[in-house]
């Protein structure tokens, strides 16, 4: 083998890496580069080429799956076309990260920068927009990310976790529930609901499948003890159907709602479009939904000022009526 051959091969490899990075970082549809500009870039980075080798390098990158687009003109222009994420997709992701109440301000900025790095240098400027999530309460404690990891790892290894649970005093100071009682949970899955993470699993304390807010778990850790098997017939998918609160121990019941026609969009938003409905008269319909009959649910019904009311079960209708009477009594005091 002629002397210098390995060195030449290493030069070609280095040039391909530099060339691929150049297309990724410094070109896009609005910022193509001419062949001369590309050769000057390679020279500047100590991997010189000529027109012939450049054509071969670009062809090889294309064969490797990199979308190098050639604009035929005088001179020809080149840029990287399709990327892993389109600009509109990156904007949506950055907006979602910025608006999420689950993610801290610091982590939102970090993730936003990482997402922007998936675009060209020119596109980054467009992505660095000042996204204001109006009235979004952001957490300050980043321990929640480690809590999510702990729960996920326990689900994968089918092990129990233990943790303490937090709540707030009237002064809005965070404190441990039940004087720091330690809870044990056999986690089956994680749910995302109302911008919060919830761990679903078998609770030793409650003796049933329960739900805990992950951001309220204090010092969670995985135990050596094997998790309790899922109850027969339990389906996380069915369990995760829309409910109005996620407090442990609440059982869901089927409720019949009478709904004014113009409020159908709120039923669809909350319960989806696969539920059973039936028109009654010209202006109203009934909807069969499954909920946890709790103050959260009744408050949701209240907000429509009679546009939605509970028909059955009688216990749920009576409970809402009693809550309304109590509200009137307290307001009159």
Q: Which features would summarize this protein structure in a list?
A:
SH3 type barrels, 39% helix, alpha+beta, elongated, Arc Repressor Mutant, subunit A, 4 domains, 4-stranded antiparallel β-sheet, 333 residues
- Cα-atom Rg, whole angstroms? 29 Å
Query: Distance N terminus to C terminus?
Result: 100 Å
Q: Estimate what percentage of residues fall within beta strands.
A: 25-35%
Tell me the major beta sheet: 6 strands, antiparallel
Helix content: 25-40%
CATH architecture heading of the largest domain: Roll
CATH topology of the largest domain: SH3 type barrels
Q: Count the beta strands.
A: 13
Low confidence ranges: 130-135
The multimeric state of the shown protein is single chain
Mean pLDDT: 85
**How many domains?**
4
Reading the helices and strands in chain order gives HEHHEEHHHHEEEEEEHEHEEHEH
Question: How many helices in DSSP terms?
Answer: 11
Structural class: alpha+beta
* CATH class membership of the largest domain: Mainly Beta
Morphology call: elongated
Protein architecture, described:
- It is a single chain.
- The chain folds into 4 domains: 5-80, Orthogonal Bundle (Arc Repressor Mutant, subunit A), CATH 1.10.10; 87-127, no CATH class; 146-239, SH3 type barrels; 253-332, Alpha-Beta Plaits (2-Layer Sandwich), CATH 3.30.70.
- Strands 4, 5, 6, 7, 8 and 9 form a 6-stranded antiparallel sheet that branches. The chain has a 4-stranded antiparallel sheet with strand order 11-12-10-13, with helices on one face. Strands 1-3-2 form a 3-stranded antiparallel sheet.
- It contains 11 helices and 13 strands.
- The model is unreliable at 130-135 (pLDDT under 50).
- It starts with a helix and ends with a helix.
- It has 333 residues and is α+β, with helices and mostly antiparallel strands.
